[in-house]
UniProtKB/TrEMBL annotation:
Protein name per the record: Protein-L-isoaspartate O-methyltransferase
HAMAP family linked to this entry: PIMT
Family: Belongs to the methyltransferase superfamily. L-isoaspartyl/D-aspartyl protein methyltransferase family.
Matches recorded under InterPro entries: PCMT (IPR000682), SAM-dependent_MTases_sf (IPR029063)
Species of provenance: Sphingobium tyrosinilyticum
Lineage, highest ranks first: Bacteria, Pseudomonadati, Pseudomonadota, Alphaproteobacteria, Sphingomonadales
């Protein structure tokens, strides 16, 4: 039954808590009782580096963060599969490749302050915490925010702040941010997120219809100037909030 659940998750569109699937993915066998460290190294090499993600700091961070700690106990054998997996709250954890793709697009530096919209299981935030000075993360589901906070505490990752709220409003009390990553697809870019970027800051967000979006990178080049680049097609569930979709129905 666990394998069936994992396979079904790969067919979904992700979740507002951070799960998504690239339009290309390889089959990846479950690890069983195999050593998680070995599977983590293989995941980085086969699923991420071979697909063109080359930032050495990012690859090192993904080799370090134990993905199995961010999925339910009964699914830990599947933590390094090349697909999303179900987590708490009826949500999912993103395919490893799409986590890496978004983080690389954000070009996170050691001195950066980063905002993540949709913390979900906390996995992407944990990876970013190995790269940035501080990560601020928001989830609209209190259960997910609390679970993610507990996972960070157990791992000793202390450069993160996690709260519950409407991510489309950003986190104005902590702005500006050097990078903002949004783990849900919106019909357009929420104005508060653009406004909370530093000059030179990068916003990575899926934009489009509810069933499929384009992953976009928006760079703030001046007080009122932004450059936009399309990266690739992705599938996330709707970004819910005042500046996103108003409900979870497909549009």
């Amino acid at each position: 039954m666990i394998k069936v659940r994992a396979q079904r998750a790969a067919k979904g569109y992700g979740d507002a808590g951070g799960a998504a699937e690239s339009r290309h993915s390889d089959q990846w066998p479950g690890g069983g009782m195999a050593d998680s460290e070995r599977l983590r190294q293989m995941m980085v090499e086969r699923q991420i580096a071979r697909r063109g993600v080359g930032d050495p700091r990012l690859l090192a961070a993904m080799r370090q963060v134990p993905r199995e700690n961010f999925v339910p106990e009964e699914l830990r054998d599947f933590a390094y599969e090349d697909r999303p997996l179900p987590v708490e709250g009826g949500q999912t954890i993103s395919q490893p490749y799409i986590v890496a793709r978004m983080i690389e697009a954000a070009a996170i530096r050691a001195s950066d302050r980063v905002l993540e919209i949709g913390v979900g299981s906390g996995y992407a935030a944990a990876v970013m915490s190995r790269l940035a000075a501080h990560v601020f993360a928001i989830d609209r589901l209190g259960e997910l925010a609390a679970l993610a906070r507990g996972r960070m505490e157990r791992l000793g990752y202390d450069n993160l702040s996690i709260r519950t709220g409407d991510g489309t409003e950003g986190w104005p009390e902590q702005a500006p941010f050097d990078a903002i990553l949004v783990a849900a697809g919106g019909p357009s870019v929420p104005p508060p997120l653009r406004e909370q970027l530093t000059i030179g800051g990068r916003l990575v967000i899926p934009v489009g219809e509810a069933r499929e979006q384009q992953l976009m990178r928006i760079t703030r080049t001046g007080e009122e100037a932004f450059e936009t680049q399309k990266l690739e097609a992705v599938r996330f569930v709707p970004l819910i909030g005042a500046h996103g979709w108003h409900d979870t129905k497909a549009r």
